[in-house]
Amino acid sequence: MNCPSDYELDAFWLEGKPKDHPVQSHLDVCERCRERLVEWKQADERFRAEVFPATEEKVVERLCGGRTGFWGFLTYPRLAVVSAVVLAVVLAVVLWHPVERESTYLGIKGTVGLEVYCHRAGQVFRVHPGDTLLLDDQVRFAVFTSGPGYLMIVSVDQRGEVSRFYPLGQVPGGRKELEGSTILDESWGAERIFVLFSKQVFDFEAVQAAVSRGFEGSGGVFKLHKLPLELGQNSLLIHKGKAGE
Question: Could you give the dihedral angle defined by the CA atoms of residues 33, 35, 37 and 43, in that order, rounded to the nearest 10 degrees?
């Protein structure tokens, strides 16, 4: 069963969850995606109750000389659009960062997003943080970048060893499904997949050196969420195991 991507689920949410939408047909049979939608609803409610009021208050105070209140803000025609922009940006951050949950996608400005899909025994499914992948699983990647640039995907195992899943290549910006797939080897244990993005060319040796520094400083792959590199990046922790584990 192919679950909708974050983009598709977001579009369905923003369109008001129409009953004739293709995503609705999927939700009728997929409990996991229904749970994803519930999490988004909770994040939206938390945003409206806690995040946006505080953000709107500060923006108004700075731009309007202390005049507060949403309707007061809208009396400034040029600033009404600012309110909408604040709403969109903050909502995006809240939705992509639910509390105490490691994100599989990050799409705010200056960063790179990552989606991982696994092909196993004729089925394709989305890989989530902590999922276990097996020997000979075929893994494909979809990425999102804020613009054109250079992208690389590497993995770091629990010993600190680095492997290249996707060599440095140019991407046009926006969402892109990368060509080809990676077949997992027989190594077992925790492994973290990193997607790295920059407007300038960077090399694998610099990534290896950053992994060494980050691995020692964090104490292991479980806490190595980000490499000490001035690059856009995101990561996903997986486990590689045997069938039945």
Answer: -140
- Of 152, 132, 130, which Cα lies nearest the Cα of 221? 130
Grouping H, G, I as helix, E, B as strand and the rest as coil, residue 77 is helix
pLDDT digits (tens, 9 = 90+) for 51-61: 555 554 554 45
Q: Nearest-5° angle of CA 170, CA 213, CA 163?
A: 45
> Residue 100 phi/psi, 5° resolution?
55, 40
CB atoms within 10 A of CB 223: 13
142 SS3 class: strand
Bridge partners of 171, per DSSP, are 149
**C-alpha–C-alpha distance, residues 191 and 160, integer Å:** 9
pLDDT tens by residue, 223-236: 898 999 999 999 99
Find where tokens 């598709």 sit.
8
Q: How many CB atoms lie within 10 A of CB 21?
A: 16
CA dihedral of 208, 211, 215, 218, whole degrees rounded to 10: 160
Judged against a pLDDT cut of 60, whether residue 66 lies above it is answered with: no
The domains located in the chain, with CATH, are 6-96 (no CATH), 112-241 (2.60.40)
Query: Which structure tokens are listed for 137?
Result: 């699983």
Sorted by sequence, the CB contacts under 8 Å of residue 29 that are 6+ apart come out as: 1
CB 206 within 8 A of CB 236: no
